[in-house]
Specification:
heterodimer; A: Arc Repressor Mutant, subunit A; three-stranded antiparallel sheet; 17 strands; elongated; B: 95 residues; alpha+beta; Histone, subunit A; two-stranded antiparallel ribbon; 3 helices; 34% helix
Chain lengths: 493, 95
């Protein structure tokens, strides 16, 4: 009998079903004025090394002192992610040599972090899923290295070094690249609602690394994982994970092994490549930082931070669906921006028409924002005025076209809606006498369309309405116009 | 625990300290002596004592988020063995 290795005899190439297991590590810059352990400014984009001092340069004899705002922000995020509030926290040194780290260790947290065992909910096609969060800890960022293309040297800027960085580590219970994408979207949204970070991936104020492994469906143990780095957007994270799922599946299906390594995502080539294998993995030798006394967080402190947490997007979505007959998807669109949701809520308080409000906000208002390249935060939108505008459309004072015009003018010129309507003469004409005059002319000038309608082409009516609207410079009430034309033509026939 | 020569080599590499064969031999013995001495602590009953993270009886040392002036750039770069413009210049290290 031929001695064929068992793997080949069994032909492992058949379609084995795999389950994807992903864990995400997210780093966000906290929006404090000064660094985590010294008073240097955190402002972005200034001359290199001008925001450094003996503490963040790691000069001998300097002592770090924790920024209380950084601590508050970190606790806030931990609580918003439903982590159990830790009463005792401490800082540890994570040791490694690299030029972006002048002390040769990073102040971080090892076994007593800010928060443990939280979760975050994501919306999937048919269900909602809780993604468990393992830990939230506070650390300091490293400096920025610029590798010279041709030269054999690098340049270092320590302005970023020491900025308060929050690391949020999920449990490996994310099961697809899409779930990872949703998790990141929601995490960013929560942090933005808390106003503790800009979460701007382009500026590096949010970064994400991913651990991914596959295992045969139904199996409990974890497969060999790889770590992915260098993704510059949430879409990049999803693409890198999709690529890695396929790469690992191909290897495993062919009876090959996954080698545990750290891989970089190459956005141009759309692939991951190995940067280092586990053999060269770091040994960080964590130990408590003797320069930093530990922290005891009182119940009062934790309660104060908790009370300061605003209503979060998931809760808003629930409320909008319950009180405003919006669908979950619609509610999600409104809640996807804190400022948009605030405008929505204020408008609803004045004029209780959630669906109309949703249509106006996601339609004309967002169109304006995109057109003028503004952010919702710096719109001069008075909820009271928008509510009034929508009311005018409902009661026939304005038609839709005129109302959109009025909205744009109102936002451009920062005037109230009544002034805009008066200045532009936008009031809708519903007076039959005035409308009859327009219609009279239109019917006379478009006898062919009239004939078409009379001979059964129902669509011709829309053309006639359109002509009347044009003649009235958009002010005619289209519903009324259609009514009158129909009546007139019926009289003729 | 026994500190083998391999362990000494590993630790010296982590600390970026180059040792001669003789030094490795010597430190292996010395580290073993030190550890043996420390191991006496194991004889103490610590059942009801939580681990000490910090030896000083102080906690919650923090400061307000108020910017303070940074060092002047010439002072920042004063001790740098090499610089270029406003940057520190270092040998190329790719992780």
């Amino acid at each position: 009998m031929n001695r064929i290795p068992i793997g080949i005899r069994l032909n492992l190439k058949f379609d084995m079903e795999f389950e994807t297991v992903i864990g995400l590590e997210v780093h966000v810059h906290l929006k404090t004025k000064t660094k985590a352990f010294c008073g240097c400014s955190t402002e972005f984009g200034n001359e290199p090394n001008t925001q450094t001092c003996p503490v963040c340069l790691g000069l001998p004899g300097s002592l770090p002192v924790l920024n209380e705002k950084a601590l508050e922000y970190a606790v806030k995020v931990a609580l918003a992610l439903d982590c159990s509030a830790q009463e005792f926290i401490k800082f540890d040194r994570k040791n490694y040599f690299y030029p972006d780290l002048p002390k040769n260790y990073q102040i971080s947290q090892y076994d007593m972090p800010i928060g443990l065992n939280g979760f975050l909910e994501i919306d999937l096609d048919k269900e909602r899923k809780k993604i468990r969060i393992k830990r939230v800890h506070l650390e300091e960022d490293a400096g920025k290295l610029i590798h010279k293309q041709d030269g054999a040297y690098s340049l270092v800027d320590y302005n970023r070094c020491g900025i308060a960085l929050l690391e949020i580590v999920s449990e490996p219970n994310i099961n697809s690249p899409q779930e990872a994408f949703e998790y990141l979207k929601n995490l960013k949204l929560i942090i933005q609602y808390l106003e503790v970070s800009d979460c701007d991936m382009e500026k590096g104020s949010l970064r994400c690394d991913a651990n991914i492994s596959l295992r045969p469906k139904g199996e409990k143990g974890l497969g060999v994982k790889t770590e992915l780095k260098n993704m510059n957007s949430f879409k990049g994270v999803r693409l890198a994970l999709e690529y890695e799922v396929k790469r690992q599946k191909d290897l495993l299906s062919n009876g090959k092994k996954i080698i545990q390594d750290t891989r970089l995502w190459d956005e141009n080539k759309q692939l991951t490549f190995s940067m280092r294998t586990k053999e060269e993995a770091h040994d960080y030798r964590y130990f408590p930082d003797p320069d930093l006394a530990p922290f005891t967080l009182s119940k009062e402190f934790i309660t104060r931070i908790k009370d300061d947490i605003p209503e979060l997007p998931q809760q808003k979505i629930e409320n909008y669906v319950k009180d405003g007959d919006l669908t979950r998807k619609e509610a999600g669109e409104i809640a996807s921006d804190k400022n948009l949701s605030l405008i929505y809520e204020q408008c609803i308080d004045i004029y209780r028409e959630p669906k109309k409000m949703y249509n106006w906000l996601t339609g004309p208002v967002l169109a304006y924002v995109n057109d003028r390249k503004k952010s919702i935060a710096d719109l001069n939108l008075e909820p009271k005025e928008l509510a009034k505008l929508i009311q005018y459309v409902s009661n026939g004072k304005l038609n839709n076209t005129a109302a959109k015009d009025a909205l744009f003018s109102m936002l451009d010129e920062v005037k109230d809606i009544d002034t805009i309507i008066k200045e532009k003469g936008l009031t809708q004409v519903s007076n039959e006498g005035e409308l009859e005059e327009f219609i009279e002319r239109v019917l006379k000038e478009n006898s062919q369309s009239v004939q078409d309608f009379l001979s059964g082409k129902e669509n011709a009516i829309m053309f006639l309405v359109g002509q009347t609207m044009k003649l009235s410079k958009g002010k005619a009430n289209p519903k009324k116009v259609k009514e009158i034309i129909l009546r007139r033509l019926r009289d003729v026939s | 625990m026994n500190i083998s020569k391999e362990t000494v080599k590993y630790i010296s590499n982590l600390a970026r300290i180059e040792l001669t064969e003789e030094e490795i031999e010597k430190f292996s013995l010395q580290l073993n002596d030190i550890l043996r001495y420390i191991e006496q602590l194991k004889e103490i009953d610590i059942t009801n004592i939580s681990p000490t993270a910090h030896i000083l009886p102080i906690s919650n040392v923090k400061r307000s988020d108020e910017p303070r002036s940074s060092l002047k750039i010439d002072e920042v770069l004063k001790n740098a063995p090499q610089k270029e413009g406003l940057f520190f210049k270092v040998p190329k290290v790719i992780e």
